[in-house]
Amino acid sequence: MKKQGNTIFFKNEPRITSFAAICGSKEKVGILGEYADITLEDDMYEESTFEKAECKMLTNAIALAIKKGGYEDRDIDALFSGDLLNQIISASFAARDYDFPFMGMYSACSTMSESILMGAAMVNAGYCNRVVAATGSHFASAERQYRFPLEQGTTRPPQSQWTVTGAGGCIIAAEDKGIKVVSGTMGKVVDYGVTDVNNMGAAMAPAASATLIQHFVDTNTSPEDYDLILTGDLGALGSRILKDLTWEKGFDISSNHVDCGEIVYKVIEREFQGGSGAGCSATVLNSYILSKMNAGLYRRILFAATGALLSTVSSGQGESIPCISHAVQLEV
Amino acid sequence: MKKQGNTIFFKNEPRITSFAAICGSKEKVGILGEYADITLEDDMYEESTFEKAECKMLTNAIALAIKKGGYEDRDIDALFSGDLLNQIISASFAARDYDFPFMGMYSACSTMSESILMGAAMVNAGYCNRVVAATGSHFASAERQYRFPLEQGTTRPPQSQWTVTGAGGCIIAAEDKGIKVVSGTMGKVVDYGVTDVNNMGAAMAPAASATLIQHFVDTNTSPEDYDLILTGDLGALGSRILKDLTWEKGFDISSNHVDCGEIVYKVIEREFQGGSGAGCSATVLNSYILSKMNAGLYRRILFAATGALLSTVSSGQGESIPCISHAVQLEV
């Protein structure tokens, strides 16, 4: 059986053989300080603009993932990547530096799981031997694109999250050692009518809940079958909503759910609801989580990053925020 | 052999079983007037904003493709789509209306071929039975996002193209009748240093040339093996550059190359270099071209849409325009 419901089963077990993450100066105060490969002193990363710094982080995260796996660029068959900037310029400009094909992905902050899902699908089918899945974000470029320029000094409301400055990527390969990508659940767009662009957690929680439940049903598993159910950037408030919504449908994830946005910053109170952005799950997964999996602490995790599919134009035109969550099941 | 170079071979021959296109009032003066399923009298399409009109065209093109194939929504396993608007809101909001999963794609005006490639890969591998690949664009929403609001009445330079108002989509299915998707060549990012955002054809031609040549080499074919080599929206100037670049590398496509942007408008002089935008190849392919294939006029075509991966931010920061072209080979 290759597919059940919306879940694809990767029978050939493509492996995550290498991973890397780069994070900003604020992020290195937390767990990423210990686990990320590169931590920046200055979030400009020696570039002249925030966008170029974001692109450089992503470019270097890809390079590091390739290098740490003992690969050369010529060993890579394709890059699956996207980011939060208009026209995914970080990914496109990062791809320009490499001589392998680039498949542009977009699902906002769910891009990490979408890229792993599509990359694993390509490797499992035998189309590719090794692909890179990667994404990232930058606090300053996201703020000025989605909200206000930092120079304006706008007050943040208590329900807001902090876009992670960082990038992460991994190699998915047709090899027999590494972390297995067992299955992937493709997400549907879910919209509960939330219109507050400062409350991403509340907007995205229903999408995460829908995908997690779909995954449990499709794979005939239950929350306790996983050492960890990892969401991407719901933050503290969004995570509470997720647990409630999922519990209402008969699945209790309260004992093993963790959100990357909740654990990325050390002093979470100062960042209100925690971290967000495509770089949030990209950095936490591709450093802390996969390291712990390699060390045997987690044997089976369900990674469901969540994306809010809004733009400033859609919000300005009075639209609510459609959201999506793609999930992948990882095992050692 | 599942892959050679950057080309994936779809041995199970997924089929395009249905297709549909919707075009605007200007576009219906040309070939689309005869071949598109719906032609608009008013490009606002009874909506209050250009963006909502664009989304409605895409939503309805998807619905029409499903309906024309005799399918129901529940027969569809996933939607592969993207568009030119920031955060691909047309595709995301279109996907909100459907109860099947959505995989967000982005490669600017190459999104049609990227979506067909990824969709066919999923069907060929047995992950999905039927997927929709679709995209679209709208002249007015593209102008105000990428260049100037229409109200400003900015003069267009002679090298410019006209973004097509339209959307198109097709069903790719694991069935044994319909147009075969034989192979797909994944594109690399190519940047020749063009910085003129009004000269997309010149920026994108090198990417198209690179992908076409890669395809010929990978598949051991030559231009004359195809009844038609169809690019997406290079326009008149870009097509001339493409022919020259490809000829320089030893491949003469001059006798069977056609560009969707060159044929979409009847009075091409008024639109300067012709049509552009994701909707350009989406409408021309999913009406005129596929109809001609079904009628036996073309038996084997190579469809290589091209995308310019710029944003207003990247251009404003002095960056050149990286471009990409993904290609699919179609046969009856």
- Count of DSSP helices of chain A? 10
Biggest interface reads: A-B, 58 and 58 residues
Low-pLDDT ranges of chain A: none
SSE string of chain A: EEEHEHEHEHEHEEEHEHEHEHEHE
Shape descriptor of chain A reads: globular
Helix share bin of chain A: 25-40%
Radius of gyration of chain A: 18 Å
* Strand percentage of chain A: 15-25%
Oligomerization state: homodimer
Q: Cα distance, first to last residue of chain A?
A: 21 Å
Main beta-sheet strand count, sense and barrel state of chain A = 13 strands, mixed
- How would you classify the helix and strand content of chain A by structural class? alpha/beta
Say how many strands of chain A there are: 15
Mean pLDDT of chain A: 96
Describe this structure in words.
The structure is a homodimer of 332-residue chains. The first copy, chain A, has 332 residues and is an alpha/beta fold. Helix content of chain A is 34%, strand content 23%. Chain A is built from ten helices and 15 strands. The first copy, chain A, has helices spanning 32-35, 50-68, 89-96, 111-124, 139-146, 200-219, 235-248, 260-263, 278-294, 312-316, and strands at 3-4, 7-9, 15-23, 38-39, 78-81, 102-104, 130-137, 162-163, 166-173, 179-185, 228-231, 257-259, 275-276, 300-308, 323-331. In chain A, the strands form two sheets. In chain A, strands 1, 2, 3, 4, 5, 6, 7, 9, 10, 11, 12, 14 and 15 form a 13-stranded mixed β-sheet that branches. In chain A, strand 11, helix 7 and strand 12 (257-259) form a beta-alpha-beta unit. Chain A is globular and about 50 Å long. Chain A starts with a strand and ends with a strand. The mean pLDDT of chain A is 96.
